Description:
4-stranded antiparallel beta sheet, MetI-like fold, alpha+beta, 2 domains
Amino acid sequence: MKNQAEISTKPDQTDQDERVYTASHWRLIWWKFKDHKVAHLAMYVVLLFCFAAIFCEFLSPSNPYQRNVKRRYTPPQRVHLFHNGELRLPFVYPVTCQKNPETLVPEYTDDTSRTFTIQLFAKSDEYKLWGLFTLKRRLIGLANGERLYLLGGDMLGRDLYSRILYGSRVSLSLGLVGVIISFVLGIILGGLSGFYGGWIDMLIQRIIEVLRAFPTIPLWLALSAAMPAEWSQIRVYFCMTLILALIGWTGLARVVRGKILSLREEDYAMAAKVAGVKEFTIIMRHLIPGFMGPLIVGMTIAVPSMILAETALSFLRLGLRPPTISWGVLLQDAQNVNAIDLYPWLMFPVLFVIVAVLMFNFLGDGLRDAVDPYKN
């Protein structure tokens, strides 16, 4: 019986070994990455954030710019399933507002005599998806024109949940675009520095040393403060992206330089050079792909720093400004300690920043372990 069991398991083991031996480099990385459970989960959370940023108009329950003075600082509405002991579809109670006669602070209480059912694909005011397609329905909402405040409202009665979703588009896109620009700069300048050496290497390395010698936050503040106040928010957005990219490429350039120095004397690189292939083509087509995995890992780990930089600058009112919506702009309302004490839900954007940064870091750690050939 034992011999039969061993014989029956041999083909499966042989097929598995053959599958590993014939797999491509990227497939092996994917298999190792899936074994990293935290990073695998972080990948799906990052994709969820990206999905929310792309379709924020449809996912948000209401217009994030629409004001309602009667609902200033309204608290988050709790979602209920039971009303008078009966199971119902998810619903919220309407709220009534009264000012405290002593503190003059608005106080909201639930009106349990009525219920508003949360509807899927609810009718709403007209809006444009990506500025192209006109739609009149959102993913969730309330009937009769009522507004849903899942995470509460701000000082002007605007829906904070909708504003956070809209802010994710600006904050995430600024971080991703900034990393892509720094990624391109780091590869080109680091590749040229490592391949040619000589005065080109010395010049690029001195520029990197000068940029890295400046304290990061004061340099960000100085460059952001240099932007004229009359600039449109689109120009400010692109300038902030360039500022973060022009400062963030130095570390990647040094990594690329070190890899190129070790690979430029390899046989395949020398053969390409003897065959008359141009130097820039050798760098981009033959040398860079040999260590693309570590570069992708570095790119993933650099995204959180870009997001935190935008959040910090906008929080200090030196980056994006209202009416642009970003996570940093939303946190400007939380600068007052008294406001946080009275309306703690104004800190909800911080939770989204923390989760996004942690998920990108976990994703980068998992990719780093997956591309490491010496890690089991």
